[in-house]
Amino acid sequence: MAGELLQYSGLATKTRAMHSRLLKREDYERITEFQTVQETIGFLREQESYGKIYGGHEEIKHRGQVEALIHNSILEDYRKLYRFGNGSQREAMELYFAQLQYGESVPHVEVSYFVEVWKRIGKFSGKQMRQVLREVFGTQIDWLNIMWMYRGKQFFKQGPEDIEKLLIPVQYKLKKAEWIRLLEAEHIEEFCRILGDTIYFKGREALVRMQDEVSYHQVMERMYRRACQKYPASMAPVFYYFYEKEQEIEHLTTALEGIRYQVPAKDIRALILPSMGA
């Protein structure tokens, strides 16, 4: 344990410093009250996490320009943390890098990416590293599959054959039999009943309670928090930071869109901070 603490000390310190600079609830409250994109740009220039990326870009005036720079901020953070990592830590970060190229709320990457990542995880020499990577990517794979199955059945009325073409042929905590039963469920009620009996909802490993709609982000947030508590000296805090930064970028992009089209502040807050309400 002492060796792991020493091995991750520099990376952990850098990650904590970056985490402290993430926007807070009060920052979003202030942003949603802005009337123009220019006001938002001015606010971001004042933030330590974004101010530096505006250097030499005084001409920025449009939403598209500022969104590009906001997205570049996570790539810059990745490069900084990468420099602090050793060989295996850098290799682990490289597994995640492909997801940083997409500014979507749920990753839109090829199925082959996850298949290749899953294979590469088994080649890491450290037991804890493999455990953390399987927890992070395995949970993500399970829930991307669950979400795609749910949406295919609920919104697109697709059959099992069509849905299966979209799925990642990997199971982590979902048992193969459960995966098949979810895929072949004829009605969404049956799908939710089967899902409710899986490890994600039952027993000590449960991450969520059954809701009206399957929540990818609810699961990922709780998984990261649990992993960081269980493995504080590991890659878990680094990946959690990337995840939270991606959420921040999504919230900022949504806020900028709302401000541009003069959406009321309370409606923007409802989109980016649902727990805040009106």
Q: Could you characterize the architecture of this molecule?
A:
With 278 residues, this protein is mostly helical. Helix content is 66%, strand content 0%. The chain contains 14 helices and no strands. The protein has helices spanning 2-20, 25-32, 37-45, 48-51, 63-84, 87-97, 111-121, 127-154, 160-164, 176-184, 188-196, 216-230, 236-260, 265-272. The longest helix has 28 residues, at 127-154. It is globular. The termini are far apart. The model has no long low-confidence stretch (mean pLDDT 88).
Entry summary:
With 278 residues, the protein is mainly alpha-helical.
Topology, pairings included?
Blueprint: H1 2-20, H2 25-32, H3 37-45, H4 48-51, H5 63-84, H6 87-97, H7 111-121, H8 127-154, H9 160-164, H10 176-184, H11 188-196, H12 216-230, H13 236-260, H14 265-272
